[in-house]
Amino acid sequence: MAEQHVFLDGINYYTLLEQPPPGIQRKNETILLVHALMSNLHMWDHTVQTLLREGYTTLRFDHVGHNKTPPPRETEQNFSLHLDDITRHMHSLVLQTTGRQDLKAVVGCSIGGVLALRYAMLYPRNVAKVISIAAPGIVCLEAAKPLWTQRIAQFRQDLRTGEATLAEATVNRWFPHHLPSDDAVRAEALQQVQTCSLEGYGLLADAIRNYDYADEVRGILGQEVGVLIVAGSEDSSVSPGLLKDLAGRISRARFVRMEGAGHLPPMQRAGEFEGVVLMPFLAG
């Protein structure tokens, strides 16, 4: 396991590069995993262990202002990020941590799912496959923009009062219905969201409110990059129908609906995600 901070455009990214354990035949292929807003790289802990046992190298990072990646040193009012900036940073992180540009796959959830697709648009020659999970569409919907303003305001209020209203609401949205089987993963997710700073939340929320790849997504060619779109049947944040439509816009993209899963299937249904969705797609 190699921990490394990589400084890019004012952001000191925390990265974690992991190799298969001794005795496992290495595939010499790297998979980049991109976490959801307000989570951190540990949402992929279970997934990574499965990938390592299969011989893959994995690379993870914390988004700006999340967990071990601090907010920008100076809280400049004009500091902003576009999703394209983050995608370029991802490409640089791969090169600087692995010494190579080529990836077996980019796997992303929520905002990470959008970034995974954007990676395929910008760097089709550097990635073989993309798995986009619970992506909030390929264009920011106008109706969603006020929600982010409200959530940022709630974050500020929570900091003043010491409450965890936003954190708890976020976890409830990720894992609906309060199923007893989700208790452990809900507790884990709550710990993760509490490592997110207000600055980091605001920067990524602003990025989510300002993207539109509706035209460019059709440029992802199935013969160049394999694409899998994954939806949770119980996801209240993203309609499975919207994601099925998104898959239909991409040449030869596959679509999988995970029954009973909410917004973070890799955490909530880890075994099913890895055994039925992830590994077969990587091997195919």
Automatic annotation (TrEMBL):
It comes from Lecanosticta acicola. Residues 30-268 form the AB hydrolase-1 domain. It comes from the Eukaryota. Gene3D superfamilies: alpha/beta hydrolase. PANTHER family: MONOACYLGLYCEROL LIPASE. This is AB hydrolase-1 domain-containing protein. InterPro entries: AB_hydrolase_1, AB_hydrolase_fold, AB_hydrolase_sf.
